[in-house]
């Protein structure tokens, strides 16, 4: 009789973590630590997978998750010597992950207590080593617990205790395991994990050096992550057909592509120009007419994004859904995909003239130049929206706007600059000039398109990267550096983004997810 191995043969599989594993991973993490408040929560693991999926591993045995580990890539030298787990992990969400970093930092290793004799921890360490070699990273670093230290704290300093364990005079399950797996003790990290009472909040900084690491040459090393942006100061002039409108839009896209811009952004209610050749007199009727061009609008800009290999924030367009009108901005990526953001706060003019309804959620979009958000016109005047966008990882906030006078324009400008400083992000505004006297929202436009930065030594003194002439048709082009932005958040003269997060954490206020 042939043996039935179905209940005996169980394969141990080490693989990348998936979102449908998270519930089990959280259970294993809490069992592994056995300390309330130490393990990452589901929202953290979800963020890990979204930002750095190849750095998150789990171990599956018999169809059950029995171990896991999370990692992040950083430049370790840019962090304080006495850092905490919250600082190094971006408050648990790893939004500080740096794809161009040289160190793999291990955030946790968790193993189900019932399976600790299967060398699960060793398997996870080996998965990290393979990843470190694959990514050509300099080393693996982490802060490790010292769970037996509380027994000797009245006799030994943390450093003396670790030395005793390394010399095999004392036993600590974590430190012993780590040193046996090739990790070298660097120093003690005080106050690393506040809830770890057994370690008295201390941790050991450990490092494994990748012997296969090849330092990049000066020619190959990319010191920054520049993004070139074209912001259009658009001329609202009379057009006689959709084809006329399309030619005008393509002119700006083509010229932005010529200077190799990564993004081109148009102003708010861009397609109201199409109402110029309708016979509709009433504002709501004009907006309704424009909604009929939604498919043509999408086809035009999706085609231009592919043709000119450029990401397009195509101003905004009135769109009808369920008998309601929304002011919607589309992002057309150069890889052919698209997303959209509806305006969330509706000013009195749009409410009374057109009956525009507010959108329901703020979104942050992934692009080949990092995460971005779109706050249409009035939305930039609400600080909480930009704050949420930054918390969700946006480095650039685009604001298409359409204002009829200098007062309206200055509200947009000053609020955009404030949002850049408050959240340490880049902000981009794109406005319109011109005068279509018979079209509401396109008559008597006033604006100045610009690109803004935080204000610090690494940026322009006045926080203005580039700007157009006021109320004149033009294309303003500027470069923004995401690596400089990241560094500024960590070690700038002022660090409002990090300090706000620290205050929220101390107050027990959860980050936006």
UniProtKB/TrEMBL annotation:
Gene Ontology MF annotations: acyltransferase activity
Top enzyme class: transferase
EC numbers: 2.3.1.-
SUPFAM superfamilies linked: Acyl-CoA N-acyltransferases (Nat) (SSF55729), Carbon-nitrogen hydrolase (SSF56317)
InterPro entries xref list: Acyl_CoA_acyltransferase, C-N_Hydrolase, C-N_Hydrolase_sf, GNAT_dom
Domain CN hydrolase: 227-482
Entries under Gene3D superfamilies matching the protein: 3.40.630.30, Carbon-nitrogen hydrolase
Keywords annotated in UniProt: Acyltransferase, Transferase
CDD domains, per database record: NAT_SF, nitrilase_Rim1_like
Coiled-coil features, chain-numbered ranges: none
Domain N-acetyltransferase: residue ranges: 12-211
Name the UniProt record assigns to this protein: GNAT family N-acetyltransferase
Organism: Siminovitchia sediminis
